[in-house]
Design goal:
By secondary structure, the chain is of the alpha/beta class. The protein has helices spanning 11-26, 47-52, 69-87, 99-110, 130-141, 150-158, 174-182, 206-209, 212-225, 237-245, 263-272, 281-289, 304-308, 319-331, 346-355; strands spanning 2-8, 30-36, 60-61, 91-95, 115-118, 144-147, 167-170, 199-202, 231-234, 255-258, 275-278, 294-296, 312-314. A 7-stranded parallel beta sheet has the order 3-2-1-4-5-6-7, sandwiched between helices. Strand 12 (294-296), helix 13 (304-308) and strand 13 form a beta-alpha-beta unit. The longest helix has 19 residues, at 69-87. The chain binds uridine-diphosphate-N-acetylglucosamine.
Length: 360
């Protein structure tokens, strides 16, 4: 029996784990132990995902959250070392680019436990982003690198990964697997005033929520957009804190600010929105899964194939770009051809690779 210790901690990781854990359960010879670091802890950011997507309950809950990056990652590292001592797994599996990802990869590699990284090879080439630091370090520590896209493989090759003791596997995107599986279980969010036509907005990146002056500019830009359309804005706790603490301009009446929604509710909104506006990595892809154009509130993206295909425009915090991109997509909706993120079997490919023992 091959034992896999999986680390999750932040919202997008619960969605990815829902797809991969199911594939692991379906494959004989694999056993999974789940550890929740606690990075995301509000019921609406964590528990609801486990319940709705029937993710196996974590055996370990570390409850580490709301700390600066160093303290958060350091405490996770310390706690994970103990878990690894107790469990002695054959693999450590980590997802994406969060502080939980890096802590898991570091703890395991110090104990000579091989690391498998889901969503390997992505780069924004912006080292100011904590996520970029986390993913570069995690990739370098990993033995199995599960790449969602061709571009991710190219990135690793350019960094010399073919010379390292690791295996690079093109899998497709596990979030695509999740969207296909859960799509017809979508649930309407518990909010009465959902307009017939709306733009779906999310903002949570540190670079967009660190500075109240910059965020005030973003509010002004969103209010300008709201002169053209209703905007539905499920607000991440980080952004909520900023809005509460700083003296910021009010949102216009056509901006509907609601609590974070569950994954199944998000799928319902994705199905119905006209355009997605976001600084999230996952939402950029989900917009494409649902054939919705996306405007990204960042200067760069890890998902460059979306921009190349004309499905996504990078606007950073430029309000003129935002309004122009909205007009562009409304007048010329892109023609989605599909196929960028695999065939919906990424999780099965991952489970198969984990059951082959490459350490011999
Ligand atoms: C983290 C990840 C990011 C990922 C995102 C998904 C890192 C460096 N960043 O960013 O890659 O895209 O998750 O959402 O790991 N908070 C709550 N309740 C919660 C969760 C967070 O109040 O359930 C608060 C925290 O206390 C903190 C703030 O929100 O003050 C930000 O949380 P944090 O985990 O630092 O980063 P995210 O912005 O969520």
């Amino acid at each position: 029996m091959t034992k896999i210790l999986t680390i999750v901690g932040a919202r997008p990781q619960f969605i990815k784990a829902a797809a991969v854990s199911r594939a692991i359960q379906e494959r004989s010879g694999l056993q999974e132990v789940l550890v929740h670091t606690g990075q995301h802890f509000d019921a609406g950011m964590s528990r609801v995902f486990f319940e709705q997507m029937q993710i196996p309950g974590p055996k370990y809950q570390l409850n580490i959250h709301s700390l600066p990056h160093g303290a958060m990652t350091g405490r996770m590292l310390e706690a994970l070392e103990e878990v690894l001592q107790a469990e002695q797994p054959d693999w450590m599996m980590v997802y994406g680019d969060t502080n939980s990802t890096l802590a898991g990869a570091l703890a395991a590699s110090k104990m000579h436990i091989p690391v498998a990284h889901v969503e390997a090879g992505l780069r924004s080439f912006n080292m100011q982003m904590p996520e970029e630091v986390n993913r570069i370090m995690t990739d370098r520590l990993s033995r199995l690198l599960f790449c969602p896209t061709e571009k991710a493989i190219n990135n690793l090759e350019a960094e010399g990964f073919r010379n390292f003791h690791c295996r690079i596997v093109r899998t497709g995107d596990v979030m695509y697997d999740a969207a296909l599986f859960f799509r017809n279980r979508a649930i309407k969010p518990d909010y009465e005033n959902i307009p017939d036509h709306f733009v779906l907005l999310t903002i949570h990146r540190e670079e967009n929520t660190r500075d109240p002056h910059l965020f005030a500019d973003m509010i002004r830009a969103i209010n300008l957009l709201a002169e053209k359309t209703d905007v539905l804005f499920p607000m991440h706790p980080r952004t909520r804190k900023l809005v509460k603490d700083a003296h910021l301009p009010a949102f216009s009446q056509k901006v509907h600010v609601i609590d974070p929604v569950s994954y199944l509710e998000m799928l319902w909104l994705l199905e119905r929105t006209d355009v997605v506006i976001t600084d999230s990595g996952g939402m950029q892809k989900e917009a494409c899964f649902f054939e919705k154009p996306c405007i990204t509130l960042r200067g760069e993206t890890e998902w460059v194939e979306l921009v190349d295909a004309g499905y996504n425009r990078l606007c950073g915090r430029d309000s003129t770009c935002l309004l122009e991109a909205y007009d562009h997509f409304t007048n010329n909706p892109p023609n989605f051809t599909g196929g960028l993120y695999g065939k919906g079997n990424a999780s099965a490919i991952i489970a198969e690779a984990l059951s082959e023992d490459i350490r011999k």
